[in-house]
């Protein structure tokens, strides 16, 4: 009988989904979100770009930052830069290879509170057929009226995903930034 109780207790304690069920979930409103990136050119200037089509969900409760979760799905065919020639090249096989890999996906797997208003999200970024670890830092901004601003930032190595073109001109580090506003949760 004692073994049965231990097994029951172990089963009860291993159910994080029950704990996360109470965490408020916020789907991104495209009119209140932006997903940008930048890479350094010639070691001097940042070349910005963005994804115009993406969606995702943030599970967030300020009282339980260690239960924060983020998923983002990017339509890689929507990547663009200010120069149409660069946009076409980014979508091509040398970089995103949007025809073969039209979507990228980030899913957090664990969250750590770094400081007040700062949370590290450890997850995987699937891009160009590879899923590699990526740490995203979530910065919780100010409340304005009934909304809360957040910014999630991270840095990836483009060569780790097979994007090795123009190494002499472009840096390897790509900075990602997701900015969004959500309805302000209680707390």
Automatic annotation (TrEMBL):
Residues in the signal sequence: 1-21
Keywords from the UniProt entry: Signal
Signal found in the keyword field: yes
InterPro entries, alphabetized: Lipid/polyisoprenoid-bd_YceI, TTHA0802/YceI-like_sf
Claim: Signal is one of the keywords in the record: yes
Lipid/polyisoprenoid-binding YceI-like domain boundaries: 25-183
Pfam family, one: YceI
Superkingdom field: Bacteria
This protein's name: Lipid/polyisoprenoid-binding YceI-like domain-containing protein
The species this protein was found in: Teichococcus deserti
